[in-house]
């Protein structure tokens, strides 16, 4: 029986030790509550399934554990197809903006042909307000995409962090697990609240003030709009720097401490437990290594889901920004009037909204990477 098992292992290209490790990892994965991760993945497949490469099995974590994850070329191709499809979907908006802008420029240039200029001014104002209505509608839609993306990432992190931290503790990184569990939950709540309650209102007020400045040449509040915009960006940058600084320095330090503790425990068992000490140490090392494999698979699945939760709404926002920026560029030869300035300022504001989503995704992405790296350092040092 043993010889037959060894022959099967050789034929499959795996050593018996590797097969045993994979079996322990699969057993651990089967006992884990990964339903939340699969639920988010299935939701992404329903929304963007045509642009995502299919997992080779129905379970994304099992697919990563067995096959190593996705085809990167297929993922990049799907992302590009989605972005250009969003740009083409907004061509109608571009046409409406260009038509209204051309009409406004024609009315503005033919004001002297009217006996009473108030007629042309009223017509120009009506067209301008229609254009502003379109702009505010699409801007509100973009902010809605951003809020939904950040809220989805926040909920996913709050659901995933306890699972990853539990696997960290199972792989021997007890000190790191005790540090990351409260720190990450607090940081995720704090960052999402700061963005929703401060950064987004600052960006929204800046956009409104830019529109007001374009309506009245006499009353300009562009500097106040710039102040609000700078305050929002500075707050976002401060949150990003503080979070990544504390998580990386403290997290890697805890990982080194866990590595020393594991090494000492392994040496103590081998030295002071007679006869069975080496066998106990090897069995514990197998369990720890299997936990590390499962933890890495769960972590990589978390990275991919965070990336997808942020990427597709961010591409929608970026496509809208390109539409407004392209409209301003096409209209500038007809005159650098208030409409062109309005379109340009809205494009810049949408880029800031895109930056908020990208910054939050980067924070959460790096948080998961630091979690994985901290636990892996502990296992490698042992």
Automatic annotation (TrEMBL):
<keyword id="KW-0812">Transmembrane</keyword>
<feature type="transmembrane region" description="Helical">
    <location>
        <begin position="91"/>
        <end position="110"/>
    </location>
</feature>
<feature type="transmembrane region" description="Helical">
    <location>
        <begin position="122"/>
        <end position="144"/>
    </location>
</feature>
<feature type="transmembrane region" description="Helical">
    <location>
        <begin position="156"/>
        <end position="180"/>
    </location>
</feature>
<keyword id="KW-1133">Transmembrane helix</keyword>
<feature type="transmembrane region" description="Helical">
    <location>
        <begin position="224"/>
        <end position="246"/>
    </location>
</feature>
<feature type="transmembrane region" description="Helical">
    <location>
        <begin position="186"/>
        <end position="212"/>
    </location>
</feature>
<feature type="transmembrane region" description="Helical">
    <location>
        <begin position="297"/>
        <end position="324"/>
    </location>
</feature>
<dbReference type="Pfam" id="PF09546">
    <property type="entry name" value="Spore_III_AE"/>
</dbReference>
<dbReference type="InterPro" id="IPR014194">
    <property type="entry name" value="Spore_III_AE"/>
</dbReference>
<keyword id="KW-0472">Membrane</keyword>
<protein>
    <submittedName>
        <fullName>Stage III sporulation protein AE</fullName>
    </submittedName>
</protein>
<feature type="transmembrane region" description="Helical">
    <location>
        <begin position="349"/>
        <end position="373"/>
    </location>
</feature>
């Amino acid at each position: 029986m043993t010889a037959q098992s060894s022959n099967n292992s050789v034929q499959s290209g795996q050593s018996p030790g590797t097969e045993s490790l994979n079996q322990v990892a699969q057993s651990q994965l089967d006992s884990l509550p990964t339903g939340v991760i699969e639920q988010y993945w299935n939701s992404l497949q329903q929304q963007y399934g045509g642009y995502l490469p299919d997992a080779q099995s129905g379970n994304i974590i099992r697919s990563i554990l067995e096959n190593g994850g996705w085809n990167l070329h297929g993922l990049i191709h799907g992302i590009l197809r989605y972005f250009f499809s969003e740009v083409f979907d907004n061509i109608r908006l571009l046409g409406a903006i260009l038509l209204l802008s051309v009409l406004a420029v024609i009315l503005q240039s033919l004001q002297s042909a009217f006996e009473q200029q108030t007629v042309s001014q009223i017509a120009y104002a009506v067209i301008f307000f229609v254009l502003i209505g379109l702009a505010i509608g699409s801007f509100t839609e973009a902010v809605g995409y951003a809020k939904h993306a950040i809220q989805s990432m926040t909920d996913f992190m709050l659901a995933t962090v306890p699972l990853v931290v539990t696997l960290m503790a199972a792989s021997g990184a007890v000190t790191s697990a005790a540090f990351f569990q409260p720190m990450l939950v607090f940081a995720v709540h704090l960052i999402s609240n700061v963005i929703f309650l401060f950064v987004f209102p600052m960006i929204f007020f800046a956009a409104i003030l830019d529109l007001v400045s374009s309506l009245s040449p006499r009353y300009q509040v562009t500097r106040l709009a710039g102040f609000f915009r700078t305050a929002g960006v500075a707050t976002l940058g401060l949150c990003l720097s503080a979070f990544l600084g504390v998580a990386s320095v403290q997290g890697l330090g805890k990982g080194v401490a866990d590595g020393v503790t594991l090494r000492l425990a392994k040496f103590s068992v081998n030295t002071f437990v007679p006869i069975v000490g080496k066998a106990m140490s090897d069995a514990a090392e197998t369990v720890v290594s299997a936990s590390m494999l499962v933890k890495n698979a769960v972590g990589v699945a978390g990275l991919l889901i965070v990336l997808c939760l942020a990427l597709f709404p961010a591409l929608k926002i970026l496509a809208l920004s390109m539409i407004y920026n392209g409209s301003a560029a096409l209209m500038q030869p007809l005159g650098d009037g208030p409409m062109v300035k309005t379109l340009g300022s809205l494009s810049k504001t949408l880029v800031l909204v895109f930056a908020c989503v990208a910054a939050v995704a980067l924070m959460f992405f790096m948080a998961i990477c630091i979690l994985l790296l901290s636990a892996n350092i502990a296992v490698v040092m042992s």
